[in-house]
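Reading a protein record of the kind used here takes only a little practice. Think of the row as the fold of the chain written in a discrete alphabet. A record is reproduced here so that you can trace the correspondence yourselves:
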Amino acid sequence: MSEDHQRLTPARPDLADEKLRGIVSAERYATGVERVVVWPSAPLRRAPVPDAPLDTEALMGERTIVYDEHEGWSWVQLQGDRYVGYMPSEALDRPGARPTHRVTALRTFVYPGANLKLPPLAHLSLGATVSVSGTSGEYARLANNGFAWRGHLAELGRHEADFVAVAERLVGTPYLWGGKTSLGLDCSGLVQLSLDMAGIAAPRDTDMQEEALGARVELSGALSGLQRGDLVFWRGHVGVMLDADRLLHANGHHMLVAIEPLAVAEARIRTNSFGPITSVKRLGRLGAQ
């Protein structure tokens, strides 16, 4: 099985999705059960131990299919980007009311009542989804408990006009391998989250994004001819063009989301393990119309 299929296919030697019967070999098969992420964010790890590599994060409201649960860990497939991995079982619950709103602020607090002076129960990050059951003044009452400020929420179906503007708001966010929240994210997490806020679905990892997104743009030796929103790919890295000359990316050199001239980034990245630019891809739109 290829690496991308391993990341996206719910199949282990001992267990696989029932839909894969006859396609992959496993000791047994299961249909799985739907669960929803109820933590503000939940780690998806490569193995069912807390110190296993973090592959990605799922935000509150995201649906999953659980195929196995053992000693506090659930083996799941995210229903959004189809990623497969291990998540703490406590982060999941049976689906309740369908999400109605999405967090549009970098992060927002959930309070036990409609009062900003109350000690908050939790914080939700950009992109998390919630079900609003009512309102109390400037606050939304959440179906699963608590209140959030209405100005930090937008109805599902309302998208940002420009995904690059979303990425700009995340400048200064610390770099976190596998991260996908405003507290920490990696290069492909930044791209996926920003595109999602603009209503554009994207795979999770750079190689998948390079294959699936946009149309190839020829890059001159002088790194000219680029425009806002172009995605620049290296082997294992991706950034977004802020304009014709500047690159916005989450990177381990600055250890945060930073903006720098593409020429500066390219000269540095070319000499490290990422090598030269492998492609530039241009989307047909920057956000949902």
User: Anything to note?
Assistant: The radius of gyration is 20 Å.
